[in-house]
Design goal:
Length: about 140
């Protein structure tokens, strides 16, 4: 989910049409490269189906848990809302097709993935610098 998502009190539907590929709740940046303009209904369906999973986690849960031996969606383990969301997003019960759509529409590009890695490194460095500074201040006491 992202900030500023206005929810309808009754239906809980998401009205915002900006989606963060790496959810801010999972440490994703608010930067432009992490944001997508999306159709509101598809956006709501995505979060109904996957909550705040990362793209690779969406694909993992589909492959490891939601796919039967024929490569079709195991509808019996999803809620009615999730099943409706699935067909809204993917329009098919073939799970390999859904994984392809996630990789195409709901994942970062290769360049964006590199930005994400850099961003994580920068954030880690900030934390390490802060800890070092705090230790130096303690040693002076
Ligand atoms: Zn979102």
């Amino acid at each position: 989910m992202q900030e500023n998502e206005k929810r309808d009190g009754k239906t809980g539907k998401i009205h915002n049409n900006k989606h963060h590929i790496i959810p801010t709740s999972r440490g994703g940046p608010k930067n432009g490269w992490n944001k997508r303009s999306v159709n509101k209904e598809k956006h709501a369906a995505l979060h109904t189906l996957f909550a705040n999973l990362l793209p690779e986690e969406m694909i993992l849960i589909i492959e490891l848990s939601w796919t039967d031996k024929k490569g079709l969606l195991k509808e019996e383990i999803l809620s009615h809302d999730q099943i409706r969301a699935w067909y809204h997003l993917f329009g098919t019960n073939q799970t390999s097709k859904a994984a392809m759509i996630i990789r195409g529409d709901w994942d970062l590009s290769q360049d964006e993935k590199e930005e994400w890695e850099e961003w994580k490194l920068k954030r880690k460095k900030k934390i390490v610098d802060f800890v070092k500074k705090t230790k130096r201040m303690e040693e002076r006491r």
